[in-house]
Design a protein that fits this description.
Blueprint lengths: L1 E7 L1 H4 L10 H17 L3 E7 L2 H11 L8 H27 L4 E3 L2 H4 E4 L2 E5 L2 H8 L3 E5 L1 E5 L3 E5 L1 H12 L3 E6 L16 E3 L3 H4 L15 H13 L5 E6 L5 H6 L5 E5 L2
Parallel strand pairs: 1-2, 1-9, 2-6, 3-6, 4-7, 9-11, 10-12
Antiparallel strand pairs: 4-5, 7-8, 11-12
Helix pairs in contact: 2-4, 3-4, 7-9
Amino acid sequence: MSLVFLKLGGSLITDKAAVSAARHDVIGRLAGEIASALQTDLNLRLVLGHGSGSFGHNPGKAHNTRQGVRTAEEWRGFAEVWRQARALNNIVMDALTATGLPVLALPVSAAGLAEDGHIREWDIRPLQASLNAGLLPVVYGDVAFDATRGGTILSTEDIFDFLAGRLKPTRILQAGLDPVWADFPARTRVVESITSSTFPDILNVLGGSAATDVTGGMSAKVRQTLAQVAAIPGCEALIFSGTQPGAVRAALLGENPGTHLSAA
């Protein structure tokens, strides 16, 4: 059985230019595509992640939460980021449940500890048990207590980075608004493939995010994803647009509707 990681980006499932604005129609469509793919390929095992978008990023930026939490006011901000991230997760979980999928949310804030912005400890045995039981575990961008910073925000990429080294997925799929463009922000030419050796050549064309993002833009996403696939023999990744109906289902079933990333 193949294990796939799929992230639904915060920019895809929320309007990041607004405040706490979920795209309910998009979330419902994506949930249906995920359910359809799992029903089509019974050998597919999936760990699903999603960003916090306009829910978590706005209070995270206001309180500078990713960089550290020390004061009473910053801890109030930390709790607000947690509340907003959880609120969006509830919306996503409800949409997935409506398709009949047996989903289980496993937030890193509940049992994970970070150190200087990276996960130091997280008992993932419940997540492994959920996969073995035929359930669909869901993780998401969230806050975490941090031994160096006091508190921080961990992106879904940070969480996938930790999980990938332990679960060894065959594919890591990132569905957002865009693939990697060769001419951002014009968005007329897609970068079809990126490897560790070609990445330095395209750094100058990688843009940041068009809206508030406290966890990094496209260059950070590509760099982190390449590091993930390089650490797992045979693993490949895909950054693509989830705005096109059917793209998430196609990616889950092995197609490449976007930018393909590999170690070599």
